[in-house]
Design goal:
- The structure is a single chain.
- By secondary structure, the chain is an alpha/beta fold.
- About 40% of the residues lie in helices and about 20% in strands.
- The strands form five sheets. A seven-stranded mixed beta sheet has the order 12-13-14-11-10-15-16, sandwiched between helices.
- Helix 13 links the parallel strand 15 and strand 16.
Length: about 450
């Protein structure tokens, strides 16, 4: 399998995909080793995963360079991702004993009631390429902490990073019969769906997630899906600092070239502040430096996948044909690599694909609205439900709107952020289940109830 640098289109590595026989052998190894890993004890597992975080910090320059070479994100953003992953690991390890330890919930005369959190067993983690460290640690770290064994499949677009994760986990002390990696594309994923795992955890697109869910449903095991989004953002008329709001929301739309599950994908602006907001937003976007991701100061690198350039072109073409206006960008950059200009569209409507289909690229549509009710109705007009954001001087006003949006996360005066202390979950086509927070720690367990009389 060729690994291609999306900035240069050069082959940077040639790695071998795992065969069915090898995958089955890895599964059996984990099946045999899972109970031994659980018996290591929670405190020792915590220490090992903390060591993994330390190793990531020590090797950040190498790991960031590998990540940038295969997915194309600017080098500083690659460093940011690894640092962010370490912060998540730190929260998960610091809170594991509290939320995975035995939980005595009631003591009466002669009776104790408690909950014990037992591991699922051997879990399958099919991961994503856009943030392989972040979406990876969301799953395999709490799974390992809870005493599960993990078979981890990185995306074929971030296989080299997957191998770095495997290397550092092993160096930290995770035994080979507790964590294994499989390398490959769709065919390898199909094999995983046939094996008798005790849980499946997938991060990726809605269509693939739906396919996985349908395939594994007859097994009657936990299956969590973190899928895409078409995340809306509303700028109300009481926002005082339009310039900073425009800057922050432009970052929310274009960071990592828009290749984020929770990137801002559509913006609604109250008519009273619309003109000023759009002016400042375009100024901010025009200040983004595009280019080779290894160059200092580059903010917009290439898209990771070649076919996504054509997809974004199609969305822009559809929007313009239906009356949208391109204020900046709008086309691919003619050079080696999968580059597309950061693009801002106005005069958009919900009849256009760019306002309905997940873009996952450096393009945004901005729409004028007359009041909160119109904004709310447009924000709700989607099959997705990952995040939603409101910028307003009033917390009460923002929470009132957000409470009516069927999304897993609501933001007030911020966007495109994740906290390890809060659950990360989707609704509708954005998936179901939760990672992160105490909910995410316990997602990899079966609760067992004990009624102890005597």
């Amino acid at each position: 399998m060729n690994i291609i640098n999306p900035a240069t289109e050069e082959i940077i590595a040639d790695i071998t995909e795992d065969t069915r026989e090898l995958i089955e052998n890895k599964y059996r190894l984990l099946e045999e080793g899972q109970k031994k890993w659980y018996e290591v004890g929670l405190e020792e597992r915590v220490a090992i995963l903390q060591r993994f975080s330390e190793l990531l910090k020590e090797d950040i320059e190498h790991c960031a360079a590998v990540l940038t070479s295969e997915v194309g994100k600017p080098l500083q953003q690659a460093r940011n991702e690894i640092n962010g992953a370490c912060r998540r690991i730190d929260w998960l390890t610091q809170n594991a004993v509290k939320y995975l330890g035995d939980d005595t919930v009631n003591i009466e005369e002669g009776l104790t009631e408690k909950i014990v959190y037992e591991p699922l067993g051997v879990v399958c983690n099919i991961s994503a390429w856009n943030y392989p460290y972040l979406v990876g640690v969301n799953v395999f770290v709490p799974a390992l902490l809870a005493g599960n064994a993990v078979l981890y499949k990185p995306s074929e677009f971030s296989s080299l990073t997957g191998l770095e994760i495997n290397r550092l986990l092993r160096k930290a002390g995770v035994p080979e019969d507790a964590f294994q990696i499989v390398i490959g594309a769709r065919e390898v994923g199909e094999v995983l769906l046939e094996l008798p795992f005790d849980g499946y955890f997938f991060t990726g697109s809605y269509k693939t997630g739906q396919y996985i869910y349908e395939k594994v449903a007859p097994k009657m095991v936990p299956c969590q899906l973190e899928l895409g989004g078409k995340d809306p953002l509303y700028v109300a008329d009481d926002v005082a600092d339009i310039k900073n709001t425009a800057a922050g929301t432009a970052d929310g739309a274009f960071y990592n070239a828009g290749q984020s599950c929770c990137a801002v994908e559509r913006i609604y602006v109250h008519e009273k502040v619309y003109d000023k907001y759009v002016e400042e937003f375009v100024k901010e976007v025009n200040g983004f430096k595009s280019g080779m991701p290894t160059e200092d100061g580059v903010y917009i690198g290439p898209l990771t996948r070649k076919q996504q350039v054509e997809f974004i072109e199609g969305q822009v073409r559809d929007a313009v044909a239906k009356g949208a206006k391109v204020l900046t960008g709008g086309k691919r950059i003619e050079s080696k690599g999968y580059f597309f200009e950061p693009t801002v569209l106005v005069d958009v409507t919900h009849n256009m694909a760019v306002m309905r289909e997940e873009s996952f690229g450096p393009v945004i549509g901005i729409m004028k609205v007359s009041d909160d009710d119109e904004a709310e109705q447009l924000m709700k007009d989607t099959e997705y439900g990952l995040t939603a954001a409101v910028y307003s001087a009033s917390k009460e006003r923002a929470e009132k709107i957000l409470s009516k949006i069927n999304a897993g996360t609501g933001y007030w005066n911020c966007c495109d952020r994740v906290s390890a202390a809060l659950p990360w979950s989707g609704r509708n086509h954005s998936g179901f289940g939760a990672t992160l927070s105490y909910i995410g720690l316990r997602a990899f367990t079966h609760p067992k109830a004990y009624h102890l009389r005597g």
